[in-house]
Structure formats: structure tokens, C-alpha cells
């Protein structure tokens, strides 16, 4: 999906060593010495090792990993708040790593908005004055400044609070103000570091939803650091998973869940809420036998394929779903030579979109005995969803690659309810350091 969009950020082989970086240290790096060994021998900390990835325009990229894995270092290398030891960062084709200090400051202001965990608001300035701050240092004139600030305040739902001081606002509202300040500058790229981590869970989820909505409206490019898998899933974009300063996998939550790159990733996603990540399209039994709406019942094959015997999917010339016909209805047709499938099709039956989460699809499936057609945006039939396929998919997800079969059996034996307890829709958070 991101391949079709313009590339906004390109990170090429970025390495960051903290400490007194001499040639001897770089030689160790080049020999591929492990992080700990380099640290023990030289005192230098390897923050990032040869990190490469890109971010498309309008994408929300979530950088995840345990504490100390290099997330913040990476984010700060993007705008050179931290100076990379090696590698290049290209933003809209500009090599940020070669900019001189004055150019860099101007480029940073114009291009990046930053939002942090602790909102960093000035306590003695009103919300409006705080939001105006970025514009003020850009030298924007007062009237324009106020207009833009008010617009941003409105966008984050803080209208009416512009004259308040930060201390008069709740944590969630302060974080909104922090976001408004980043939005007000019109910077196309937002860098957000654990921006919602200090908020309580309900407010946090609300902010995640609103960020996605804002993102749809404003088409910002967002790099969002988080150590929370649920948050990454809620934001819905690709995930860069880091460990010890290196990238271990890049992909959507669904891709990572379907094919974890190694045991570390598998462990990381073990407690993932599968229902919210897997999509109906991935689980649907693809290519069900389909029949054109103009086909007469008399012309149907005498023996239908097993998958169609129960429910026939009827499509138009373009492959778009017209409706479904229950298999047992066919024998009861009085004039099979004068009746088409289109005549019999139930046209407003339940359907599920391919990109719907399994969670949403299950709600539909629970209300039907027959397989439910799965369609794309244009109602083109992608497949059918059956309870059997869902159970099979969930059972498969129970056994990550590398897991010992015995453990899977034990899990299965403990599976007494409709779904295993570890798959129930509850908060699943990756472990983090305190
Ligand atoms: N200025 C610094 N000097 C020395 N080491 C540093 C410095 N900044 C970061 N590090 C080290 O680099 C590594 C990566 O740190 P970073 O802050 O990027 O991790 P993180 O993934 O953001 O962790 P957290 O989730 O705790 O914020 C850590 O081992 C950290 O101790
Ligand atoms: Mg950090």
C-alpha cells in the first residue's frame, strides 16, 4: 500500500554510537562485534546499528521495541537532535545529515513537529500562547499566528480552553495542547515519542482514535514511538520492531503476526489480540464457486461443488456480489428454465469487508448460519467467511513458529470457551522496563 505513495523519509544505514567514538571503536563495529562487547571494551554505547527503512507520505509508522532498544535514538536521528555516527537521512530528498547548523534549524522548524510524553508546555503561558510558540519562533506575525493556533486548538478539541493555563488542564488535555502546538506550525512530519504513554488507558485510546482521524484529514506523515503493541495496532500502520539498536522486522501488525521474523518477534506478538489484527480478507476462504446472475437454474451443473452446495454466491459481470442463494432452494424452483440465480438471490444479506477486523466480522458471522461473503470496497467478491475458517485461523495463531507442539497441545486442552482466553479482546501490552 505504501509503495504507491511518495516517499517522505528515507533512512539509510544509520548507526549511532554514544561516547568517545574513535577509529578503534568503529573497527570493532565493522568487525560485527556485539553491542555488549563494544560497550565492555570501549565504554561506548551502540544506540543504533545500520538501521534502514522509509516512510511514505501520509503514513503512520510505529517504532516499537523494549526499553533501550533504540526507539528514541532513532526518532531523534531523523531531525538530528541526535547526530548519527554513520548513514544518511533523506527527507523529501534533502540529505538532513549534510545540512549546516543554521540550515538544519530552519529545516527542522519547517519540516518537523515533535510531541513528547511529557507535554513540555510552558506553565505560565496560556494554552493559546503555548500553541503559538512554534509560530512565534518562526517569526509569523501575531494575527496569523493566532488564527493558526485557534485552528489547531479546535482540531484537537480544546476550543474554549485557549485562555487556560496548563495547570488548569487534565493530562489528556495537556497532551492535546502539545499536539496542537505541533499541528499549528503546518510541519508535514510529526515525530511523536511515547506521546500518549502518560495518559490513562481510556483517554489514551480516545487520543489514538483521534490521531488516526486527524491523520486522515491532514495527511501528515507520522513516526510514532511506542512500546505498546495495542497502541501500534490501534494506529493501524506499519510497525518497525527494534531490538538492541537493530530492526528485527518491518510490516503491518497482521503481516508480523502471520510471519514473525524470529522467536523474539513471536514472543513479542504472543499476547496480541488476534481478533483485532487479523482481517476477514486474510481468513476468508478465497475463490468460492461463483455464478453469474443471468444463469438459469436449469443450466446449473447437476452436481454443485461441495463449497457451493450450501450457499451460492451470485455475481454480476464485473465480479461484484449481487447476493447469495441458499442451496436447498434450488430443487424447489418450479420453472428452472425461466428462473435465474439473480431472481433468487437475497440482495441485502450480510456481507463483510475484506479489511474488517476479525472482531467485527465475528459479530456478523455470529448472526448467520450460512457462510458470509467477503467483498472489497467495490463489492467485488473476495471469498466467504465461515465459522470453521475462523476457528482454524485462531487455532493456527495459537501455535507460533518455533513453539513446541506439546505446549500447543496443552493450550488446546485448556481451550474450553468459545475462544481461548488468551485471544479474548483484552489489553495486551508488551513487557517494558517498569
Ligand atoms: N546520550 C546518551 N549517552 C549514552 N547512551 C545513550 C544516550 N542516549 C541513549 N543511550 C543508550 O542508547 C540505547 C537506546 O536508547 P533509547 O533511549 O533510544 O531507547 P528507547 O528504545 O527509546 O527506550 P525507552 O523505551 O526506555 O525510551 C540505550 O542503551 C541507552 O542507554
Ligand atoms: Mg525512548
UniProtKB/TrEMBL annotation:
InterPro entries: AAA+_ATPase (IPR003593), ABC_osmolyte_uptake_ATP-bind (IPR051921), ABC_transporter-like_ATP-bd (IPR003439), ABC_transporter-like_CS (IPR017871), CBS_dom (IPR000644), CBS_dom_sf (IPR046342), Gly-betaine_transp_ATP-bd (IPR005892), P-loop_NTPase (IPR027417)
Keyword terms of this UniProt record: Amino-acid transport, ATP-binding, CBS domain, Cell inner membrane, Cell membrane, Membrane, Nucleotide-binding, Transport
Principal place of residence: membrane
Keyword Acyltransferase recorded: no
Region of interest (Disordered), ranges: 397-434
Annotated ranges, domain CBS: 345-401
Lipid bilayer topology: Peripheral membrane protein
Transmembrane segment boundaries: none
EC number, as in UniProt: 7.6.2.9
Top EC class of this enzyme: translocase
Any single Pfam family the record assigns to this protein: CBS
Listed Polar residues bias regions: 419-434
Taxonomy, superkingdom: Bacteria
Substrates-to-products reaction catalysed: a quaternary ammonium(out) + ATP + H2O = a quaternary ammonium(in) + ADP + phosphate + H(+)
Domain ABC transporter: 9-269
Locations listed in the record: Cell inner membrane
Gene Ontology MF terms in the entry: ATP binding
Family statement drawn from the similarity comment of this UniProt entry: Belongs to the ABC transporter superfamily.
Assembly mode: The complex is probably composed of two ATP-binding proteins, two transmembrane proteins and a solute-binding protein.
Protein name as catalogued: Quaternary amine transport ATP-binding protein
Species annotation: Benzoatithermus flavus
Organism placement in taxonomy: Bacteria, Pseudomonadati, Pseudomonadota, Alphaproteobacteria, Geminicoccales
Amino acid at each position: 500500500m505504501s509503495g504507491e505513495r511518495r516517499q517522505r523519509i528515507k533512512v539509510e544505514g544509520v548507526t549511532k554510537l554514544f561516547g568517545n567514538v574513535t577509529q578503534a571503536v568503529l573497527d570493532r563495529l565493522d568487525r560485527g562485534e556485539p553491542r555488549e562487547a563494544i560497550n565492555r571494551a570501549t565504554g561506548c554505547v551502540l544506540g543504533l546499528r545500520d538501521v534502514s527503512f522509509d516512510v511514505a507520505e501520509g503514513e503512520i509508522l510505529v517504532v516499537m521495541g523494549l526499553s533501550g532498544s533504540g526507539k528514541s535514538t532513532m526518532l531523534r536521528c531523523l531531525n538530528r537532535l541526535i547526530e548519527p555516527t554513520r548513514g544518511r537521512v533523506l527527507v523529501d530528498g534533502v540529505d538532513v545529515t549534510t545540512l549546516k547548523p543554521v540550515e538544519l534549524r530552519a529545516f527542522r522548524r519547517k519540516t518537523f513537529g515533535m510531541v513528547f510524553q511529557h507535554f513540555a508546555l510552558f506553565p505560565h503561558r496560556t494554552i493559546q500562547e503555548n500553541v503559538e510558540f512554534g509560530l512565534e519562533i518562526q517569526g509569523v506575525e501575531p494575527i496569523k499566528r493566532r488564527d493558526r493556533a485557534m485552528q489547531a486548538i479546535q482540531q484537537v478539541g480544546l476550543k474554549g480552553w485557549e485562555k487556560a493555563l496548563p495547570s488548569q488542564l487534565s493530562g489528556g488535555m495537556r497532551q492535546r495542547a502539545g499536539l496542537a502546538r505541533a499541528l499549528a506550525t503546518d510541519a508535514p512530519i510529526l515525530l511523536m515519542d511515547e506521546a500518549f504513554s502518560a495518559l490513562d488507558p481510556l483517554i489514551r485510546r480516545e487520543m489514538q482514535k483521534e490521531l488516526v482521524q486527524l491523520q486522515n484529514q491532514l495527511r501528515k506523515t507520522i513516526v510514532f514511538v511506542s512500546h505498546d503493541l495495542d497502541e501500534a495496532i490501534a494506529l493501524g500502520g506499519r510497525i518497525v520492531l527494534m531490538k538492541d539498536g537493530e530492526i528485527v522486522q518491518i510490516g503491518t501488525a497482521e503481516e508480523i503476526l502471520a510471519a514473525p521474523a524470529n522467536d523474539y518477534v513471536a514472543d513479542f506478538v504472543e499476547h496480541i489480540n488476534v481478533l483485532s489484527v487479523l482481517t476477514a480478507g486474510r481468513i476468508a476462504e478465497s475463490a468460492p464457486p461463483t455464478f453469474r446472475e443471468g444463469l438459469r437454474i436449469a443450466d446449473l451443473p447437476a452436481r454443485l461443488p461441495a463449497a457451493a452446495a450450501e450457499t451460492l454466491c451470485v455475481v454480476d459481470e464485473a465480479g461484484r456480489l449481487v447476493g447469495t442463494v441458499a442451496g436447498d432452494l434450488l430443487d424447489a424452483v418450479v420453472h428452472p428454465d425461466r428462473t435465474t440465480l439473480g431472481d433468487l438471490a437475497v440482495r441485502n444479506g450480510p456481507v463483510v469487508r475484506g479489511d474488517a477486523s476479525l472482531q467485527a466480522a465475528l459479530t456478523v458471522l455470529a448472526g448467520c448460519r450460512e457462510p458470509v461473503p467477503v467483498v472489497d470496497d467495490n463489492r467485488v467478491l473476495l471469498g466467504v467467511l465461515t465459522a470453521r475458517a475462523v476457528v482454524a485461523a485462531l487455532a493456527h495463531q495459537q501455535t507460533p513458529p518455533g513453539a513446541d507442539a506439546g505446549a500447543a497441545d496443552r493450550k488446546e486442552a485448556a481451550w474450553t470457551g468459545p475462544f481461548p482466553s488468551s485471544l479474548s479482546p483484552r489489553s495486551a501490552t508488551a513487557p517494558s522496563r517498569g
